[in-house]
Amino acid sequence: MPTAKSLQESEAAARTAKMDATGLLQPRAALETVGPAGRYAPKSSAASATAPATAFKSQARQAAAPYPDPPRTMSAKECLKGLGSTKKFYIKSRFAVCSGASFNQVWFINNRPSGESRINFIAVGTIAKGSRTVKIRHHYLFEKTGRTGALGMILTPKATVPQKWPASARISEGGAVPGGRSWASLAAESDPGFTRTLTGKAGTGSGRDDALFAVFQPKLKLTVTGGWKMTGPREGQPFFLAPRWDKAKYLAGSTANGGATFSYAVHMPFSTKAGAPERAAAQHIKDAYTKPEKTEPKNTRKDIPGRTAGKPLTRLYHDQKRREDNRNEAIKACKHKWGPNYSEGGKKQCDEFPFSTTYEGAAQALRKYDPQGRAPKKNFSARPIPKDDNEAGGRIMSGFYSKNRIIDGTDDGFLIKVS
Fold first, then answer.
1. Residue 418, class by beta-carbon neighbours within 10 Å (0-12 exposed, 13-18 middle, 19+ buried)?
2. pTM of the full predicted structure?
3. Per-residue model confidence as pLDDT tens digits over 170-209
4. How far apart are CA 125 and CA 121, in angstroms?
5. Which of 93, 100, 90 minimizes the C-alpha distance to 7?
6. pLDDT score, position 6
7. Alpha-carbon distances of 94 from 71, 89, 110, rounded to whole Å
8. What b/e sequence results for 152-188 when a residue is b if at least 16 CB atoms lie within 10 Å of its CB, and e otherwise?
């Protein structure tokens, strides 16, 4: 169990949810939450902490290497380190996430402050490879100073699934939620807390991918004993996690029953560094974001999604004709600028961004996909790049989709990170 000093250094309380007018901690969603869970409650105003993209890229840049598996474990110590002093959520991967809240108390004797205490309440969600079971371990971390009634305070947790989509979906819950226990008895344990599991039943989701979304909501109630007086929230539902299940058959390595993930947009990594096989593709993406006015087709208002959590890219899989149209529109742009021999005899390929495998691809403004004319026009970039670089970028994209369980449609999403 972390020491009081380590807790103070990490200041896990800084990433907690806000209190409403009654003093109760209220829930927030991670800024990167996608799908229906992202519309369930207000989102955090700040980006979540994430694991460095370089941790996933070294293998992916090797032309013959498979895209690496994202991490699927996380300890309480890792969670606290990831959250640091300012973050509300830490997304190590779509299979290992955590959040937490701090309940802070000021204690009084004869109406004068006599001491302070803090309960850091964190939840770490992990999903094993090939599993539909989401494991959520709750940890209590304590600290106090001065004269307090903290040791006698009773902590009563709850853990619920207040919302699921579709409403008819079936989720089995496991792991006992303990009754009220005192601070003193919990603090005597090496790792005070409890574990819950959620398993979405295959065949009870919706759409072609049998997608099932949910909100998992931990709650905590504090009861003061011994006649002590204190200030601070006495109950709250300060954060929630957003699990998702699917049976998308097009995800490589998926089991017959599909799998589970968390509904958070994570970064697809690209590198412009020397030696990176996808270097030219990465530079194209970087230019599309940072120098859009210099990319083709010309559009002074070009603003391509995928850089921020509020505007993620979304995967296009089921509509093969639209993927072909995305590709054809990009090739038209390459031919218009560089001529019909833009490939230089097959040495180059027309690279498009956003990818043809996204709903934001080059064909999004065609009338058949946008009958009301709301999609931005020419909001993409096309450029001839060396064939090897383009194919290396394609391998990263394909591996990222499968290993991160990115499914078709606007209820999922991802971001791009170019280093």
1. buried
2. 0.91
3. 999 999 999 999 999 999 999 999 999 999 999 999 999 9
4. 13
5. 100
6. 38
7. 8, 12, 50
8. ebbbebebebebbbeeebebeeeeebeeebbbeebbe
